[in-house]
Amino acid sequence: MFIVKGEQFAKERLTWSKPFDKVSDCDITNGKIRWFLGGQLNVSVNCLDVHVAKHPDRIALIWERDEPATEVKVTYRELLETTCRLANTLKSHGISKGDRVGIYMSVSPIAVAAMLACARIGAVHTVVFAGFSSEALAGRIQDAQCKAVITCNQGVRGGRLIDLKSTVDAAVKNCPSVQHVFVAQRTTNPTPMGKLDIVLEEAMASECAECPPEPMGSEEMLFMLYTSGSTGQPKGIVHTQAGYLLYAALTHQYVFDYQQGDVFGCVADIGWVTGHSYVVYGPLCNGATTVLFESTPVYPDPGRYWEMVQRLGINQFYGAPTAIRLLLKYEESWVKKYDRSSLKTLGSVGEPINHEAWEWFYNVVGDGRCPLIDTWWQTETGGVCIAPRPAEEGAEIVPAMAMRPFFGIKPVLMEDKGKPITGNDVSGALCISLPWPGMARTIFGDHNRFVDAYFKPYPGHYFSGDGAYRSKEGYYQITGRMDDVINISGHRLGTAEIEDALDEHPAVPETAVIGISHDVKGEIPFAFVVLKEDSSLDQAAVVKELRNLVATKIAKYAVPEHFLMVKRLPKTRSGKIMRRILRKVAMEQTENLGDVSTLDDPSVVTEIIKAYAQYK
Ligand code: ATP
Ligand code: MG
């Protein structure tokens, strides 16, 4: 469809300073992807100026600050002015087109303005989640060779203050490329300032509120972003201008059934791709009102999301399974006491959503009234690739299934030897056979790694790294990462399937299953189980029930041979379970855990190693 309609979409939906003359030029075998060649545009113009021209006082951002009921609204006109001042500040400090700028800030209007200011002058932003350690931050700044870093003095999250500036100080000591550190003032607490440091608000005050946009070629870099690091060393994924923006905007509209006037609530952090595409670029390109969520799902209590939905009148709510699994442990009254009648669409992203979480989100939060869409995509895909699109189809949604490819996306399931699997009711490696405008263009500084990781495994196709099942009806279900597929006596099974069955147990909010090698069976499943905090629970009885659940829902051979009760699971800072760490624990290879810089809380690992030692 993009081949046919791409031209029309790109012309209608984007504002160009120079029209493109060729829709695409791609050679997927060599990882060469180019869209809308010869054209020039500026992403910030498409996200701001075009809307200011029509409705300057429309609300662009609602900043839902950590403390409830202290939200701040920012109009399109105000956001454009702030962006221009910030862009001029960067320019005055020698930052120009092509320079990389690190952004290490909590979610706020000034952080969004920082992204758009880079886009305005053609600088390349790389947002690093403001929870990463100084080493992880330094590694990313060094890899990107950032010329400047934009940060805040402190972050505020869950009622706690986080010293962002001191983390940046420690990081940039080892980053000679950094010439300036711009420091926005999120709190009034004093911050020690060094010779690289500039108070952002002061510098912006003396700058002009207009900044001519840099005309950018469609295929020049817009941003780079490091992946979550669930499977290994994070990669600096590169996205370019026109194709990315068009894909983010179209998916934002069609996947979530966004209508003009809606308040779009994606609670992801801007440090992840979800924040880029569905907090910032997609909604702003569509002239939407987008929510910036600074807090956590349980601050000040587990009703936070739904109190916010009521207060801000949120129409689309987009979140992650990890938060849903956390919230369903609490009384339903935390949801029910708030008016959620504004909600029209619910969405989930980041991990496979298990049935229990899906049902709770759909029935308790959505009162069985709002379509709940499971959206599958990746940092590399730029936007949603597989999701139900209920508005358009007007049809059924199968629970916990991503179901339908987006326009222009051609999923193919591959068998081990690289042959496409035809027919339905089949599983395989999830690939995409045609290029689309939103896909990543390269890994920063390492195109060979890009080609090797995504295009070599199945020549002529983009390989996602995930596995999927195509149902009898032809719908797609993500079965988890290919690395997490286990082979038990010749039966291939995604660990997500076993987890989904285990999670059904009322005393079990969350589980992680991995495969360990076995002399006879090849591999056997090993389950790490988080139990509800309830001292009356009989663990042996729970294990017996868990065995039964897997045996009846999947098959006897899928029943884990080991059940280890743990307090928490190791997760990335974006909330994804890091199964590779669990595999190391169960294989007793903890002396070499690999890259753990993206791990949220390293003490979880020590906790689990101890629990394993006792279990053994
Ligand atoms: P890394 O590539 O560094 O290991 P990552 O894959 O976690 O990190 P992201 O790009 O943030 O980095 O996440 C994309 C991955 O998240 C997908 O490949 C998939 O495994 C998982 N995912 C995202 N959405 C879904 C979904 N709806 N259902 C199942 N899995 C999902
Ligand atoms: Mg990945």
Give an overview of the whole structure.
Helix 2 (about 45-55) crosses helix 4 (about 110-120), helix 3 (about 75-90) crosses helix 4 and helix 18 (about 580-585) packs parallel to helix 19 (about 605-615). The protein has 19 helices and 30 strands. With about 625 residues, the protein is α/β, with parallel strands linked by helices. The chain has a 7-stranded mixed sheet, with helices on both faces. It has a 5-stranded parallel sheet with strand order 7-6-8-11-12, sandwiched between helices. A 4-stranded antiparallel sheet has the order 21-22-24-25. It is globular. It binds adenosine-5'-triphosphate and magnesium ion. Adenosine-5'-triphosphate binds near residues 272, 351, 402 and 478.
Characteristic terms for this protein:
Acetyl-coenzyme A synthetase, five-stranded parallel β-sheet, lipid metabolism, 30 strands, 19 helices, alpha/beta, 616 residues, seven-stranded mixed β-sheet, binds magnesium ion, binds adenosine-5'-triphosphate
Class from secondary-structure proportions: alpha/beta
Please state how the strands of the largest beta sheet are arranged side by side. 5-4-17-16-18-19-20
* Rg, nearest Å: 24 Å
Q: Which small compounds were modeled alongside the protein? A: adenosine-5'-triphosphate, magnesium ion
**Helical stretch tally:** 19
Q: Between the first and last Cα atoms, what is the distance in angstroms?
A: 55 Å
Principal-axes shape call: globular
The main β sheet shows up as: 7 strands, mixed
As a percent range, the share of strand residues is 15-25%
Give the overall average pLDDT. 95
| Fraction of residues in H or I helices | 25-40%
Unreliable spans are none
Number of strands: 30
